[in-house]
Write the structure tokens for this entry.
Amino acid sequence: MITPANRPIVVAPSILAADFSRLREEIQAVEAAGADWIHLDVMDGHFVPNISFGSGMIKSLRPHTRLPFDVHLMIAPADPYLAAFADAGADRISVHAEAGPHLHRSLQTIRALGKRPGVVVNPGTPVEPLAWVLDLVDLVLVMTVNPGFGAQSFLDSQLPKIAAVRRMIDATGRDIALEVDGGIGPETGARARAAGADTLVAGTAIFGAPDYTAVVAALRA
Ligand code: DX5
Ligand code: ZN
């Protein structure tokens, strides 16, 4: 049985901070560096104040690594595009609790597409809505910055929320990843882990460093 104590740490580099002109090489470099998943941040310029990339780019990257694709949708509405992200080769698809009125249906749709559903909460969002969808998800993502941009500072205010979500997940007895995203490096990652996180997204800390292997190892240590 996987418990918080024995659940292996998952390191998920966010390619938002990678060199977009060399994305194939960048994902292959983090795979060689020991990363577990590739985190893909999809932004629509509407739900968040920035535009990144969509399902077409994810589909073209899919053949170039064996790592699972962890797709973080920062788009509203999300439902009309879920099938396209499933078709593009996403393994996990996460939607924001704030992105629409039918979170429960979005998560059901992702499962019906044969993918692992995740739910995301922004820093200002309480944990209570999660209680009513935990039975549907394989992942909860607690944002540790306001979504939209990389290279922001980790919000310490989210540590008690991570701990609260840890307790909620443990009470289910199910194997649900507790992911954190935003301002994560070795130091903040260690504090998030102490609070109960097991899956660390890191953009700038990895792609901004000269030695990806050293940072992935430091996040896992
Ligand atoms: C923010 C994104 C993050 C971002 C993290 O909206 O969801 O995944 O890329 O970047 P860093 O690690 O630089 O804070
Ligand atoms: Zn993200």
In short: The pocket of D-xylitol-5-phosphate (ligand 1) is lined by residues 14, 16-17, 39, 41, 72, 145, 147-148, 150-152, 181-184, 201-205 (CB under 6 Å). DSSP finds eight helices and eight strands in the chain. The chain has one domain: 10-220.
